[in-house]
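Below is how a single chain appears once it has passed through the pipeline. First comes the sequence as given, then the structure the pipeline wrote out for it. We keep one example in the README because the format questions we get most often are answered faster by looking than by reading.
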Amino acid sequence: MSAEELQHYLSDDSRRGPAPPGAFDGAAGGAPCGDLVRISVAIADGRIGAVKFDAEGCAAARAAAAATAELVEDQPVLAVARIGPEAISRALGGLSAQGRHAAELASDALHRALSAAASSGARLAVAPHDGERTLVAVSGGVDSTVAALLERERGADVVAVTVKLWADEQNDGERSCCSPQAVLSARGISHSLGIPHLTLDLRDEFRIGVVDEFLGGHAAGRTPNPCVLCNGEVRIDAMVALAERVGASHLATGHYARLADDGDGPLLAAPADSAKDQTYMLSGIRARTLSRLRFPLADLCKPEVRRLAADAGLPVARKPESQDLCFLAGEGKRGFLGRHGGLGARVGDVVDSRGRVLGEHEGHHNFTVGQRRGIGVGAPEPLYVLATEAESNRIVVGPREELATTRVRVRDARLHREGRRVDRVKLRYRSKPIECRLEGELNGPGSYQELTVALAEPAYGVAPGQTACLMDGDLVLGRGTIAA
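Resulting structure:
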């Protein structure tokens, strides 16, 4: 950056000042670097209107803030959503390695302001006149990135969105799909593909609808499935609503699933790669939402997805998959339950099904029905957790045959089709579907407070709190929560 360019932006106070009325704010920096940048944007009719900035710290940070404000004023929101540190650096005539930090701060402040707008419910763009626009959920992993690539190759005008669900210093943000680090990674990948990127901040909704249920469920002796709750109640519907506000006809995700129309509309169905089938995790999605979804990876297997990423020169081609729940990454369930739910060590009895005490444990919340490892009791044959009793803080154990059940009660069921069509049920994510029929007062599609699933063969380790994915062949007809 030349001295003349630096002086131009340092002396330009025309956009410096407090946020205009109704503007969306974003700030980045502060301790420990000492530089702080704030960008405020007003949005009307899909364009940036008034822009104000402020900055503290080094000259490069103040210049980068001024250059960013000049870049975005009176520009379409989706064009502004493509702006990253490189564009800001070019506007400044190039920056040194040290000066690039200032461009990164200004870019981050700008995108936090756009995130505030995206999360507010404001309309950010109108539908394109000459083509289809798709909003693609990009987490920074290989699957979602290839989904965005395929949608663009299909000819769609692609906009990327990343949901921010959880921020916790105790987590390993690099291993989480919804952390602040994941947002930065996804934004960088999207910009490298020339795709505008938005961030949807759902931390409050996620805490209330998913994390609190996870904590409360374990306290009550259940084993909730956070991913089913998150997809069905929090993030998918929120992203579909954002798609409407950016003029997109559909939301595409990198899930391994497909849609099949049975004559009454779309239903979830198994993808080509049965080993990656994620329809169980998506089974809570409402019927009205399915018509707005696309699954570009439906006919691909994981090695093909990685090959497509490698052929496109994407740095995520070999990125390992996250194995943890997003909010447990790097910490583990026991530590999380203790720190956030107050569920610490609490000595209780390990008993058999006749009530005989066999040993002790450190808290019923550390166990789930069907668990074999970590019980800490020796026996002539392997023991499994048969039940967890929250009130008495006991766990009941026994041989595998005592786990067997042919009737499963489910609560809060949701059916997309006539319940008599249900002929299979999946009781855990990785389990094989079991032939079954539904019992109860079946009145067609809708919500049911309670139903009973009668199994054609015994199931072992049916855990209260987990999801029962209700199916007709490989079509997902709905879901329910397994009751005690």
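The chain has twelve helices and 20 strands.

See the next section for the split statistics.
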